[in-house]
Amino acid sequence: MKHSALIPVVALLCSVSLTAGLFWLTRGGPPVARPEFDSFRSEAAGAPEARLKTPALPGLARYPREPEIRVALREQPVDSLTLEIDGPFRIRAIGGKTVLSRGQRLASCRVAVEGRGLRVGSTKLEADAVEIEVDQPPGIWVGGHEYRGNLRLFRRESRVLPVNVLPLEQYIAGVVDSEMPAAFPREARRAQAIVARTYALYQLEQAPRGAVHDLYASTRSQKYQGFQYRGEKNRLLAGESQSSREIAESTRGVVGLYEGGLFCTYYCAVCGGRTVEGSDIFKDAAPILNAVTCDGCRDARLYRWEAEISKRDAEAALRPLLGRAGKKLGTLKSLEPAHREKRGATAQYVVRDERQTVQVTGAALRQALGSKGLYSPSFDVQDRGQKLMFSGRGHGHGVGLCQWGARGMAQKGASAEQIFRHYYGGAALGHLAYR
Q1: C-alpha–C-alpha distance, residues 409 and 421, integer Å
Q2: Per residue in 154-174, pLDDT tens?
Q3: Maximum Cα–Cα distance for the chain, whole Å?
Q4: What are the DSSP calls for 205-265, one per residue?
Q5: Calpha distance 63→434 (Å, rounded)
Q6: Starting from the edge strand earliest in sequence, which strands make up the sheet with 159-167, in order?
Q7: Does the bond joining 8 to the residue before it have cis omega, within 30 degrees of 0?
């Protein structure tokens, strides 16, 4: 979730593996489902259900029309990117009416900074911020992903930042399939849509003045793959599906509220049986993000896990973490809990080298060692000579809705509203004026 809210070190949301829709597209043949979800029985077929009935929100009447969301397609500006446009298009300077370039299509080309402007293929654009519009979206490909809406390109010194701008509900359809498998029960996916919409709008409202995007397409915010994308061996995978579009439509405009306003609806992949107190991880966590029991995620592969990490690998991963705190780590001698009886995100762990001891939190260790198999901040650790053995529960930071827990609740008959209220106790549901 949003990086500026994390303490003491950024704790990134780890999503469940991504899914792809099972619908036929107009180009390139049928996208296929990601194989890791083939074992699930799909429950996404069937007629669209009625929209979720919730009270109107006069306090949020500032959305008389469906808002657009601005999604940064890279976490940082890049040296260059590949761009392809399938149909008629126009390029304008952002905020301007003059067309700088147009065409019937654009073959795959390189976009990079040139001088004080941008170069798109063979065309030099004398502007440092442009917007590309297509006659019939989707049709804009960036780095193997096709997107709905428009594409904005911003020059950032010698680098380029691509931003997809599209209607909120189209974005939500993409997030639902990117964040939660199509094989998960429909009510779990409807809850995911509500949570994702609330999160997106909260970030839109929190974006600082002058910002060029509201959130990221990665798990730094929430995963968004666009309309479709090319996977391994150039296979065409769906970023959204008929099911996810129906899910978005059936919950259109429905958001979660705390004290009459939007709040940051953090969520995780697997909590491991109990969610984490929001304030233990995030500075902007609403008071209703309390720890709750969760019986629904027992089927998840990472409900319980073990990870063996060599001290040499742990040392290399911990060195940047301690460096940001002004500490220089030598040879790692040991890593152990400061208090045997306490575990979790705020639990303190003692790192020892040949000269010093330093305390770090479970959340900080999870960030530093996440790529080594430390999937959550809830774990025990044992010193085994040259190796450290971790045994833990869950996947992700553990705050808010547990995606696998939502699956389990829906399988037992819980509605999207019941799922939402379980993980965000005290929150209300309502719908925005554009519904």
Answers
A1: 12
A2: 999 999 999 999 999 999 999
A3: 68
A4: HHSPTT-S-SEESSTTS-----SEEE-GGG-EEESS-HHHHHHHHHTTTEEEEBTTB----
A5: 6
A6: 99-103, 89-93, 129-134, 150-156, 159-167, 68-72, 215-216
A7: yes
Specify the pairing of strand 254-257 against strand 145-147.
Answer: unpaired
Residue type, 325: A
**Which value, to the nearest 10 degrees, does the dihedral of the CA atoms of residues 285, 291, 295, 296 take?**
0
* CA separation for the pair 397, 138 (Å, rounded): 34
Q: How many CA atoms lie within 13 A of 74 on its CB side?
A: 18
Q: Which of 44, 55, 52 is nearest to 432 (CA)?
A: 55
Tens of pLDDT, residues 59-78: 566 788 999 999 999 999 99
Is the pLDDT assigned to residue 368 strictly greater than 50?
yes
pTM, 2 dp: 0.84
What's the order of all strands across the beta sheet hosting 387-393?
304-310, 387-393, 379-384
Instruction: Give residue limits of the domains in the chain.
Output: 80-157, 304-393
313: three-class secondary structure by DSSP:
helix
**How many Å apart are CA 269 and CA 300, to the nearest integer?**
9
Q: Which among 356, 374, 373 is positioned nearest to 365, based on CA atoms?
A: 374
- Return the structure tokens found at 400: 């808010």
Side-chain-facing half-sphere of 301: CA atoms under 13 Å: 6
Distance of alpha carbon 326 from alpha carbon 328, whole angstroms: 7
Phi, psi of 105 (to 5 degrees): -170, 170
Question: C-alpha angle with apex 247: 244 to 253, nearest 5 degrees?
Answer: 125
206-223 burial string, b = 16+ CB within 10 Å, else e?
Answer: beeeeeebbbbbbbbbbb
Both structure tokens of 43: 């429950």
Are the CB atoms for 429 and 207 separated by under 8 Å? no
C-alpha 158/C-alpha 384 separation (Å) is 48
Please tell me the predicted confidence (pLDDT) of residue 126. 93
DSSP state of 425: T
Residue type, 250: S
Place of tokens 């939007």: 262
The crossing angle, in degrees rounded to 10, of helices 186-206 and 403-411 is 150
The HSE-up count of residue 101 (CA atoms within 13 Å, CB side) is 18
